[in-house]
Design goal:
By secondary structure, the protein is of the alpha/beta class. It has helices at about 10, 15-30, 50-60, 75-85, 100-115, 130-135, 155-160, 185-195, 220-225, 255-270, 275-285, 290-310, 350-360, 385-400, and strands at about 35, 95-100, 120-125, 140-145, 165-175, 200-205, 235-240, 250-255, 325-330, 340, 345, 360-365, 365, 375-380, 400-404. A 7-stranded mixed β-sheet has the order 2-8-7-6-5-3-4, with helices on both faces. A 3-stranded antiparallel β-sheet has the order 9-14-13. Strand 10 and strand 11 (about 345) form a beta hairpin. The longest helix has 22 residues, at about 290-310. The chain starts with 7 loop residues before the first helix and ends with a strand. The structure holds pyridoxal-5'-phosphate.
Length: about 400
C-alpha cells in the first residue's frame, strides 16, 4: 500500500464496464473456459489491406515523426472531402481537427466547454464515456431517460423540458451505442426547432456509426438538417468503426474554429496530436475504395437479424430491432427477481450478465452501465456461428431461471 491520495476528479470516475467485461472474458478464456465475448465495441473484421499497406508505406517513407497538432494536411483534406461527399457539408481547414480516436475528440470538446455549474444533456441509454468525461470536467450530466417506448430517442418535448439556464451542451449519438437507434432527418429537425430557441446550448453529435445503418436508411446529422445550427455544432466521427481501425486511434472533429482552437490547446498539452502512421492509414481509408464499408454493413445486418430474432424467442426478453451500429439492447425485466439453478438471486441486470458470463460463458454488458435498466448490450460484431451459439446459451440460461 502506498499513501497515494487520488484527485477527486478521478475518484468520481471508473474504468469502462465494457472494457472490464472484455478483460474478464479474456481472463476466463486464459483459465481454459469456453467464453463467447459479445462485450467489446469493435468490428471483428480485419482492417482492409490497402489501409495497412498505406501505413507500411508511410513508415518506410519517413512518416514516423510528430505531425501538425491538428492533423496532417492530407488527412484534413480527405476529411473535408468526406463531409462534402457524404454529408453535403463544407468545412474550412481550421474547422477540422484530428485526434487520437473519437474518444479524444469528445474529451477535448468537454474539457474546452464544460466546467463546474454547467449542465450537459445526455439521453439515456448513452455511451458510458459521455457521462464519465463530463464528470471528469466537473460538469453535471442531465440524464434524460429515452426508453424503448420512445424508440430510445430524445423527443423534442423531452429536450424542451430538460433545458435550464445552466445547459451548456446537448450530446447526441446517432446511430446509438448501445441501442442502435437512428435519428431521422425529421427527428433532428424537431430537436433543432427547440434548440433554435436556446442559442446558448451547443450540440455535440457523435456520428461514429453513421456508415452502419440498416434496411435502406441513411444517417442524418443535425448540422446538415439545420444549417443555421452549424455554428454551434461539433460533429465527432472517426475511422474506428467504419473501417475496422480501432487500434489505429484516429478520430476527427468538424465544427466552429473558435471551439476547435480551444480543443487544440487541450490536445497540444495531452497527446501533441494523433499518430503519424494512423493518420496515413486514415487517408487511405477515407479517400480509397469504399466497398469494404458496404460489405461490413451487409454482414452486420444479417447478424442483427439472427441475434434479434433469437433474443426475442428467449423467455423474459424483448428486443427492439436496432436501426444501425452493431449492438442490440434487449429489455430483461421478465428475468428480474428469478433465481439461478445454482441458487443465485437475479436482482438486476448486472446479476444477470454475471450469470450469463460465469455459468454460460457469454460476455455481455449490463444496461445500468449505459444508464438504462433492466437491459443488457449484445455486440453483434461477431461471426454468425458465434452469435448463434451465444443466442442458444442465452436461451438455455433464461429458460433455467426459476421464478420465485
Ligand atoms: C458512441 C461511440 N463514440 C465514440 C467511440 C470511440 O471511438 P474511438 O475508438 O475512435 O475513440 C465509441 C467506441 O466504442 C463509441 O461507441
Amino acid at each position: 500500500m502506498t499513501n497515494l491520495k487520488a484527485a477527486q476528479r478521478v475518484e468520481r470516475i471508473s474504468t469502462s464496464p465494457s472494457a472490464i467485461a472484455s478483460q474478464r472474458a479474456r481472463e476466463l478464456r486464459a483459465e481454459g473456459h469456453d467464453i463467447l465475448a459479445l462485450s467489446a465495441g469493435e468490428p471483428d473484421f480485419q482492417t482492409p489491406p490497402h489501409v495497412i499497406e498505406a501505413a507500411h508505406k508511410a513508415m518506410l517513407g519517413g512518416q514516423t515523426k510528430y505531425t501538425t497538432i491538428s492533423g496532417t494536411p492530407e488527412l484534413k483534406a480527405a476529411i473535408q472531402e468526406k463531409f462534402r461527399r457524404e454529408n453535403g457539408l463544407d468545412y474550412a481547414n481550421d474547422e477540422i481537427m484530428v485526434s487520437t480516436g473519437a474518444k479524444q475528440v469528445i474529451f477535448n470538446a468537454i474539457m474546452a466547454m464544460v466546467e463546474k455549474g454547467d449542465e450537459v444533456i445526455v439521453p439515456a441509454p448513452y455511451w458510458i464515456s459521455y457521462e464519465q468525461i463530463v464528470q471528469l470536467a466537473n460538469g453535471t450530466t442531465k440524464i434524460v431517460r429515452c426508453g424503448p417506448e420512445a424508440g430510445f430517442k430524445l423527443s423534442a418535448e423531452a429536450l424542451k423540458k430538460s433545458i435550464t439556464p445552466d445547459t451548456r451542451l446537448l450530446m447526441l449519438n446517432t446511430p446509438s451505442n448501445p441501442s442502435g437507434a437512428v435519428y431521422t432527418a425529421e427527428d433532428l429537425k424537431e430537436l433543432a426547432d427547440v434548440l433554435r430557441k436556446h442559442p446558448n446550448v451547443w450540440i455535440l453529435t457523435d456520428d461514429i456509426y453513421e456508415r452502419i445503418v440498416f434496411d435502406g436508411r441513411k444517417a442524418a446529422t443535425i448540422a446538415a438538417v439545420a444549417p443555421d445550427l452549424k455554428d454551434r455544432t461539433l460533429i465527432v466521427n472517426g475511422v474506428s468503426k467504419a473501417y475496422a481501425m480501432t487500434g489505429f486511434r484516429i478520430g476527427y472533429a468538424a465544427g466552429p474554429s473558435e471551439l476547435l482552437s480551444q480543443m487544440l490547446k487541450v490536445q497540444s498539452q495531452s497527446t501533441s496530436g494523433p499518430s503519424s502512421v494512423g493518420q496515413a492509414a486514415a487517408v487511405a481509408a477515407l479517400a480509397g475504395p469504399q466497398d469494404f464499408v458496404e460489405n461490413c454493413r451487409k454482414a452486420y445486418q444479417e447478424r442483427r437479424d439472427l441475434i434479434v430474432s433469437m433474443l426475442n424467442q428467449t423467455t423474459g426478453l424483448t428486443c427492439q430491432t436496432p436501426e444501425g451500429a452493431f449492438y442490440a439492447f434487449p429489455d430483461c425485466s421478465g428475468l428480474m427477481g428469478t433465481t439461478t439453478p445454482e441458487g443465485k438471486k437475479i436482482e438486476n441486470d448486472r446479476d444477470l450478465v454475471m450469470h450469463f458470463m460465469d455459468d454460460h460463458g457469454v460476455a455481455l454488458v449490463h444496461g445500468a452501465a449505459y444508464g438504462l435498466s433492466p437491459n443488457f448490450r449484445v455486440s453483434f460484431a461477431a461471426s454468425m456461428e458465434v452469435l448463434e451459439e451465444a443466442g442458444r446459451r442465452i436461451q438455455t440460461a433464461a429458460n433455467a431461471l426459476v421464478k420465485t
